[in-house]
Amino acid sequence: MTDGMYHKQFFAYILGNIVNFLYPFHRPNLVFEKVSSRAQESGFEYFKYVQRQFPREKTYYVIKSDSSDFCKTKGMKNVVLHGSFSHFYLLIRAGLFISSETPGHVYFWRENMGLTANVVRTKPYVFLQHGVLGFKKLDNMFYGDRLTAPIRLITSSQFEQYIVTENLGYDAKKVPITGLARWDLIDLKRERTNLRDKILLFYTWRPWLDDVDEETFATSEYLSSINKSIQLIKQMNLDKEIIVMMHPKMQASLSKKEISNIKLWTDSDGPLNELLSSVALLITDYSSLAWEAYYREIPVIFDMFDQKRYEKEVGSYIDLNRIPFGSKVDNKISDNVQQIIAQDYQMTEEELKAKGMYFAFQDQNASQRIHDVIQNIDLRAINREKRRLIVRAAFRIIFKR
């Protein structure tokens, strides 16, 4: 943060607190996405909905001016530049954050910058989510009894709501079933007629590989298993373009020969949701992207080559031996691909019939339902509860000493 930003932050902090004292009600909402650099997820879709339907509502969107998505906000009102005086002022003035990320993403990610950071950290927020919960356990900061927990955690079905209430300690009223705002972009009728000419391999990262050296990574099961799957699929000479998305360290470890005739997809190639509209088959391990593929009626193959270690070190809310859709690789991934080809790249009738269990809504009205939820939040009661939790946490620290 530059000296100029420090000065803007200081004066914005003072002004914001003065205005909050004089006018404590009718405070604005602040919407953002990953590190305030994206406009392609549920946050932006919800913001667009509010702009269209409630243009006088005090809902603002924060984004960095050097973001590749900044052009999407051209001509829109209530767009705030990250690092501006308005940004710092709204961090203090806003009554509610709304995002598919944690509050730290609207400030300076992974930096502790004093008083404003403390306000941001404890601000009430609605968590819109990236995808459906199931294959990966959330960080403990999302547990319902934590000061860092969202005041509302958006879900897509009773199945997902049950996961949250049973495992994270939320009351059902705090886990509304609305569907994900980003799915408002998906027209299922049109999706079914799209030209699907791509196979997407999307592998998630492993936390136990964060700090290993290059030699250890080069001999890891993670690298060898994924590379083996890629090569087997390449050898099948399919009539689909092979797209691979993975961690940058993984991409850097593959040789030019290994990645020949495939496309390594990065953020600069475009939003993932746009890519999915032309995908005929998704191959993944534990990614929540599998749920979006299911929603879009794209067949899914699960390549869970390190399931036992993943269950031990990351964990899942569902039994990975009884996944609710898709097929798991038991021997060679090419066997699973052949089965999908035999189905003409279509989901089975059983999977299509079961969709209603995992998606309560299959329309384009999630943002409307989320807005209704937000309008009915009693922020005064929530802030009283937040203050109570802060006092309780302070007492715990004092008595520990």
Task: Report on this structure.
This protein has 401 residues and is of the alpha/beta class. It is built from 16 helices and 12 strands. The protein has helices at 3-22, 42-53, 85-93, 115-121, 158-167, 188-191, 214-218, 221-234, 248-253, 272-276, 289-295, 307-313, 333-342, 349-358, 366-375, 379-400, and strands at 29-32, 59-63, 79-81, 96-99, 125-127, 152-153, 198-202, 241-245, 263-264, 279-284, 300-302, 327-328. Strands 3-2-1-4-5-6 form a 6-stranded parallel sheet, sandwiched between helices. A 6-stranded parallel sheet has the order 9-8-7-10-11-12, sandwiched between helices. Helix 2 packs across helix 15 (366-375). The longest helix has 22 residues, at 379-400. The radius of gyration is 22 Å and the shape is globular. The relative contact order is 0.12.
